[in-house]
Write the structure tokens for this entry.
Amino acid sequence: MKVLLRNPRREVDVVGNRRVKDVLRDLAILPETVLVIRGDDLITADQMVADTDTIELRPVMSGGSPGGRPSPP
Amino acid sequence: MKCRKCGSAAVLELRRHNAAFCGPDFLDFFRNQVREAIRKYRMFERDETVLVAVSGGKDSLALWDVLIDEGYRTQGLYLDLGIFDYSVQSRARCEAFAAGRGVPLLVRRVEEEVGAPVPVIKSVTRRPPCSGCGLSKRYLMNRVALDEGLPVVATGHNLDDEAATLFGSVMHWQTDALPRQSPALPSTHPKLVRRVKPLYRLSERETAAYAFLRKIDYIVEECPFAVGATSIAHKETLNRMEDASPGAKHNFLFGFLDKARGAFERAEAVTLNECTRCGQVTTGTLCAFCKLADQVKRSG
């Protein structure tokens, strides 16, 4: 299967039919940090992904702040 | 995996709630969390117009989308930071969203307001880029709200943002910062508007899922200056804790808000003055924004 990753944008191949959670584990990606997208749908960690499928692992983390301090008045 | 509410196929698992939802039921869950945030902290009333600060990212556009759907009167504000193609793309997302929903959007350029865009501010101040950027955004959000006669600014800060900020403050025992960590900061001066964070109950994965399911075209690419930011490192640490113990971020933030924040409230209120140049609120005589603008001017 093809797995699309972002930041930076890249593509990796994973061989065989696999569950989403196994793909994430093999790529060392925490489930909490991505949406898993197949076509126009979100899919959950227990779903099977076929060898012929393409999935996107879209990162959800955003931000950046000066040390993460709450803002002054 | 089945939806907890209707039993159909789930699209998203929320481990911290020990639940999974189908698309429609997740959207209901999301809206309920926003309603609860607004109600619990009395963030704004139906007859108030809310200034929604939007960046083109998932959080702020999801927030704007929910508030519009909930029937609130809103006014968007996009601050153009001048960060190369990132700002061009993010502004385009905000303008397209506003046009699609038929809602008003104000645009202000940091370059016009401060005298230089964020990349120049970064090199002039020799401080982390998020520092001058955050300062400029807070100042301009408040000033635009005052100029427009709006009583409240809503930002898209989510549970992860708030937990990471709290983590940073606690790691350095910045006890002066802890009382300011709240989903709603009241107006404590006639020239300070209320600041609220209606998404504080929702993780950033949940806001991303909401934006995806609502087909909101948001900018996925990260701000180029966020790479290496301290708050990102804190988020990564918290996500590892969350993976080992679902609900860790929620418990950390909500435990602080419910049990600990009050202990850090200062006995004496900070004296607030008006900046001798621009008239905005400051604890000194010249505000940090005017000092920054001076610094930029001297370098030019």
Notes: Residues 20-26 of chain A form the longest helix (7 residues). Strands of chain A lie at 2-5, 10-13, 18-19, 34-38, 41-42, 48-49, 54-59. The two ends of chain A are 51 Å apart (CA to CA).
